[in-house]
Amino acid sequence: MSRVLILTDGKAGHENQSKAFARALDCSSEIVKVGFRSRFAKALSYGLDHLGVRTTRLLSIEGDVSRRLSTTLADDPPAAVIGTGSGTFYAAKAIARRLGVKCGVVLYPRGYDIASFDCVLAPAFDRPAKAPNVIEMPSNLVAADEAFYEKGVATFLARTPNGEAVVKGQVTAVAVIIGGPNKCSTMTPEWMKAQLDAIFDGNRRQSTAIGGDRQSSAAPVEFWVTTSRRTPPEVEAVVDAYPWNYRLIYSKDHFNPIPAFVKLARRLYVTAESTGMLSEACTFGTAEVIALDNLKPGPHKFRRFVEDLRAAGYIDGNRKVDLSGPFAAARRLLGL
Fold it and tell me: What is the pTM of this model?
């Protein structure tokens, strides 16, 4: 098995996408934290990159990797260097050049010389330029595989015996994943209440319409929810007040039920700013995915992301993202 060197900026969302990329390439990996020595060094990197100057002197590299670039890594180099996010783009080029290998990055490296990356996996919402080395994706990458979901479901069922009824088809699960506000989104108790009222009322009415009278054999509906570390306390209080069959309030319990939600739910609601969770829901499982729109007005990337997924049938539908083609193209570009 080939191996790759993953450069991380320390952000879990970026690192997880790099891990997913390495797994898709069928490569083992070593993870190294990198950064710029200063803000000036990062600013300088854009100009130097366009001049063809890629030097590790601008970088802060964790551990003994700096020394190993001239010793063990140089003698037995990885197949490629990969990274996700602006803190890794220049570093991927500089370290790959030092080792004489190719580099691939995830997300669009705007401001850098695109043509000199060997492979760029860019989400469509970044509106990447059309180029032979740029592979457009409908969603973010998600570091998960079937074993991950099997373990997640098993752990969930051990904590929630009622979940077995969903597995057996005796109960239909409607699940809600709640993130939190960011620069392009809001989240208020009033908004949350309106969303949850609509979810409970709409799914109960639909179940009644399908099931008819009490003698019907239609499966009853269970409601599941999880909040996140980003969910405001006042919003969690609203969520906690509803009659959930299963609830995970993050401020009280850090267990992760999302793998089970993705695999078991028939319908899955996700707050629209949660691009990672929407990507996972639209890539794995069989659920119909619905985005709860808490986005601010304007043509920002979160809005583009949701609208693109909806237009392609991944949101408000149960079509799933297939990244096998993009991954095959990435392997070719990186010579793997």
Answer: 0.85
